[in-house]
Amino acid sequence: MHELDASPSQTVLIVDDDADILASVSYALKQAGYHVLTADNGEDGLALVKTNQPDLAILDMMMPKRSGFLVIEALREEYTDPIHIIMMTANEGNRHQSYAELLGVADYLHKPVAIDTLVARVNQLLA
């Protein structure tokens, strides 16, 4: 788990087991003025939600310790006012996207995701 030094009012949590994605998305969102938290697995991501209450979470679907779906299910059970969630995945299956939509994700993006597209979507959701 890592917390980057930023002090804006809105916090974005990024949970992905790919270190390159964590680094690039974190950098871009920090440059856009967000406070950024990162975790490389679902368990650590859930712990960060509980201690930091981010405004938005960007989750990978397939991760160690707890998948993005299991993280979303836990968040939906625990919080009555759910945070915005963007799910990113390299999986092309429609079944997974349908389940993500059923769980109420704000967006479902296929990797590779253009960083400017992701930042624009975060800006829209947190506007």
Order of helices and strands: EEHEHEHEHEH
Q: What Rg do the Cα atoms give?
A: 13 Å
Give the beta-strand count.
6
Report mean pLDDT, rounded to a whole number.
88
CATH topology: Rossmann fold
Number of domains: 1
Number of helices: 5
Task: Explain what the structure shows.
This protein is α/β, with parallel strands linked by helices and about 130 residues long. The chain has helices at about 20-30, 40-50, 70-80, 95-100, 115-125; strands spanning about 1-5, 10-15, 35-40, 55-60, 85-90, 105-110. It has a 6-stranded mixed beta sheet, sandwiched between helices. Helix 1 (about 20-30) links the parallel strand 2 (about 10-15) and strand 3. Helix 1 packs across helix 5 (about 115-125) and helix 2 (about 40-50) packs parallel to helix 3. Mean pLDDT is about 90; it is low at about 1-5.
How is the topology of this model organized?
Layout: E1 2-3, E2 11-15, H1 19-31, E3 35-39, H2 42-52, E4 56-60, H3 68-78, E5 84-89, H4 94-102, E6 107-110, H5 115-126
Parallel strand pairs: 2-3, 2-4, 4-5, 5-6
Antiparallel strand pairs: 1-3
Helix pairs in contact: 1-5, 2-3
